[in-house]
């Protein structure tokens, strides 16, 4: 395939804007299509926990999770909740989700694939941030996982698989944790530090800076909502938007949780679902962690950002249109205060900000990265689930390689859209 094509990239989130930057490097002309502001509050990238966790290689579904499904249905405020009203629509996805983690071997296959995608991510993001003039937004200073006991860690399949795929960490006993994190609740008696990982100080500002850098470098930004793709035979002719068609030679579908309609328009009915997520942020907190951390019992990431102390986590299966359940954000706030007892219990509501958004998720925990069946002019890059920000740097490089017909830098068979078709 010749370089220098006109590429329309649908979606101005982290994956889309980095794909635009990398496509420019390959000599393509790029149009970025999105109705919203890059890095704006409507975007999943904005609400990301801010972790650049290159060790996040374990898919959400693990062996035995099917036993917990009744609890997910009964508890609307649990770490994973399924709304009864949405269950019939979500059921096919949920069945695939459960089957993907049915055996340790299936989880291991995903762990190896995601390790290829995420390895060196903090370094890749640091280089991009430097190019965009915001190096201070990316820090490579490790992350900490905290556990109530050593047994909670030893019994976790995920950590055994992380070791198998090459992740290394430093183990901390209770005293060593207290030295590093004096404000942490004493119920946590064991921790591990993954030193290769990093964090983003402001995910929304980072994506906005990358978009500005892309536009300054020659990318055209069109504010429109894409609704489909038009082919002539096996050749792409245009991206269809609500305001008209945009003629192009190639397209990238990177529209996050709203990619499903676009792939269906060219005959690929992919099982994309939204794992609705929430975060809560305390502005100017008096105390908190010195490093970014995850609490194993709360299934929650805590991260310092430039705007405050952010706690993010939980999954809600309820589709794209249902109203948020803000009590889920309140649970995150309560967990956060419980982790750090010196935080005031009566923090004014004006200092607490809550957010809700849509993680685009495939049932096996692996994104779709590859060509559409109908045309190699169309590249898919969506469905990253919980690793959207951290996985966006290498995904953008892979997209550019696919657009130019080059050998991808990692094996893409585990991410091939055809695995669901």
UniProtKB/TrEMBL annotation:
GO terms for molecular function: oxidoreductase activity. It comes from the Bacteria. Keywords: Oxidoreductase. GO terms for cellular component: cytoplasm. Pfam families: DAO. Residues 6-402 form the FAD dependent oxidoreductase domain. PANTHER family: GLYCINE OXIDASE (PTHR13847:SF289), SARCOSINE DEHYDROGENASE-RELATED (PTHR13847). This is Amino acid dehydrogenase. It comes from Bradyrhizobium nitroreducens.
